[in-house]
Specification:
- With about 270 residues, the chain is of the alpha/beta class.
- The chain has one domain: Alpha/Beta hydrolase fold, catalytic domain (Rossmann fold), CATH 3.40.50.
- It is built from 8 helices and 8 strands, in the order E-E-E-H-E-H-H-E-H-E-H-H-E-H-E-H.
- Strands 1-2-4-3-5-6-7-8 form an 8-stranded mixed β-sheet, with helices on both faces.
Length: about 270
């Protein structure tokens, strides 16, 4: 496969991205697919946390782009200066990433440009945790309206009920004192966590196809958080499926790679 680096624009800043293109006639499992995957990571993390997702998919013929969220210092030194803007527009980076992936695809595979027609091209928008939530919001962008599309959301669900959440334990609060220094001040936990909680309760996404994957050992989402979030999504006429691997802790999202690939094979997108 071919891996190239590029930048995505975010306000006056730039954030990093990697494009993964299949190698025709190489180790690829078949031919180049009419499927794009646009992916991003979770809060305080960076693209390396899920780097094997696009690698596994590109091996199967899917062209992928994996981008760092702005204001996340492990992946780039851009800043988020306006939290309200990030809340309302951060998910639009998925479309910016799509345009960059499309350009890279045409340059690499000029004879396959016919695969990019709206009635042929399939779009997978996905991510882990915060990235997963942003992928859901991105599916509603008018720019994606005419495409076949779905979201694969890993490590996303309603917070556990009637128990002390891991975020509220002394150990995690101590850890956050370090983690919050890895993001822009505007993205501090006191801003981001209440927003994520509210967004999951009020998120306006409808008539979409969504696949949720959360580990049985994911302490952040908890025992039934994925299932309760699935009900919220189903109430808005979304087609929602769930998958619960035995081993997929929240801090090891790379373990989800095989489940993404398996799901896309199951629905004949690979």
């Amino acid at each position: 496969m071919k891996v190239t680096k590029l930048f995505l624009n975010y306000q006056s800043q730039k954030t990093n991205a990697l494009v993964f293109l299949p190698e025709v006639g190489g180790e690829i499992e078949g031919d180049v697919k009419a499927t794009f995957a646009i992916l991003t990571h979770g809060y305080t993390a960076d693209k390396s946390s899920i780097i094997n997702w696009p690698i596994r998919l590109a091996e199967a013929g899917v062209s992928c782009i994996l981008f760092d969220l702005p204001g996340h210092y492990l992946g780039n030194f851009s800043e988020v200066e306006d939290f309200e803007h990030f809340k309302n527009h951060g998910h639009e980076l998925f479309y910016e990433a799509f345009l960059s992936l499309k350009k890279s695809f045409i340059e690499e595979f000029p004879l396959h440009e016919n695969l990019l027609e709206n009635d042929q091209l399939k779009l997978v928008l996905g991510g882990h945790s915060l990235g997963a939530m942003l992928s859901l919001k991105a599916l509603m962008l008018p720019e994606f309206k005419d495409f076949q599309k779905l979201s694969i959301a890993v490590g996303l669900g309603m917070a556990p009920k009637d128990v002390v959440h891991i975020f509220d334990t002394p150990f995690y609060k101590s850890t956050l004192k370090v983690r919050e220094q890895l993001v822009s001040p505007a993205l501090k936990p006191d801003n981001v966590f209440p927003w994520i909680k509210e967004e999951k309760q009020t998120i306006d996404v409808h008539d979409l196809t969504i696949h949720l994957i959360t580990g049985a050992d994911d302490l952040v989402v908890g025992n039934d958080g994925m299932e309760r979030f699935a009900e919220v999504l189903k109430a808005q006429n979304n087609s929602v499926t769930t998958e619960k691997p035995a081993k997929l802790p929240h801090h090891e999202p790379q373990l989800a790679a095989s489940y993404l690939k398996k799901y896309l094979k199951k629905i004949n997108w690979l």
